[in-house]
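User: Need the bound-state model for D-gluconic acid:
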Amino acid sequence: PALPSFPDGFLWGVSTSAYQVEGAVSEGGRGRSTWDTFCATPDRVYSGHTGEVACDHYHRYPEDIALMSQLGVDAYRFSIAWPRIQPEGTGPANAEGLGFYDRLVDALCEAGIAPAATLYHWDTPQPVEDAGGWLSRDTAKHFADYAALVGERLADRVAMWIPLNEPMVTTVYGYGIGQYAPGQFLLLDSVPTAHHQNLAHGLAVQALRAAGARQIGTANNHGPIWSATDSAADRAAADYASDLLNWLFADPVLAGSYPEQLHPLLPTGFAEDLPTIAAPLDLYGVNYYEPTQVSAPSEGNPLPFDLGAVEGYPMTTNGSPVVPDGFRQFLLELRDRHGSALPPVYITENGCSYDGVDDQQRIEFLDGHLRALHAAMQQGVDVRGYFVWSLLDNFEWSKGYQPRFGLVDVDYTTQCRTPKSSFHWYRALIGGTR
Ligand code: GCO
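Assistant: Bound-state model below.
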């Protein structure tokens, strides 16, 4: 059956991020980032892939905007590379870097596509990392200076601001288990990086407001955490994992508090920062991919939970279970937990990896997730827009170019773009709801 209809004015978009699509890592005065370093380190990234060229979006953005016009999206969510704006991570703005995003934003506005800018999608300037990265409180202050530089230049045209993308991933994958840059293995000692990112968010919100920015939010990676069984031990483990993966990032921003069982892991004096972190937002971004299943920790596990596989669902080529109802479940959980403190929600990412240009499975995935989203809205969650991850196949972090998340296929030898079946499907969907 046809998809249920979404409200008038519901915003339809697509997302990308700088390191995953731009390439041109040595152009325009860009400094090095932690991802350049990580990719240059043997055995970190699948088959030695790097973001050096990626989709060459830095040069081909006019062609990519033409694709978005054809697709009919209302908004494009991209990220700004901090090392293009401040090659050393501190100091004055690099005019060429600001100039690139200025042209990108102008071209979007001309095409009638609202620019939605993320300020940080994991590409920390290497000198900032060398000085401690997110383990250092100073990084939050540097980040606010960077936000001010970008805000002053672009606040008049950017329609939606996301200071940090998925700080959970940086904390857990970057500093906790070392799967992503900067590749540290600190386990729960990574939690201070969560607080420093949350503080960076709060300080950046202040800087953006001072620069006249409208519509400021955040984008957190979320999903329900399922307990493997009903036993008290498994449920306690799931509760802990949900605090670590979901609420460590949502609660301080929305309620000015941290889950109590995580207090011992936070930097001393964290409570004084909470009012800054909890400044009111205009929107709250949810990135949803999949649920997580956990059980009580097995012997020798230094973490208070074991991660298990979610079984009995179809899988994407990336090994993610396809669970649309997890999307609805999480949105209701978020609404129930935060009530009227929750601003309007935007789905800032949702998508899947499948191979091939006739990607019927992606259509099924998106169709299922939009039905689940609609159901959550019927049940009272105020959702105002939805961004597919991603416009283009792109550099999928430590998995390199192997997973393909795009509505548009990219041939990495020729840079030829080919809209997939899902592109035509999304276009018809958007056209039909306008
Ligand atoms: C994310 C990531 C994206 C990934 C996507 C698919 O914000 O989680 O933003 O960079 O490519 O999630 O795994």
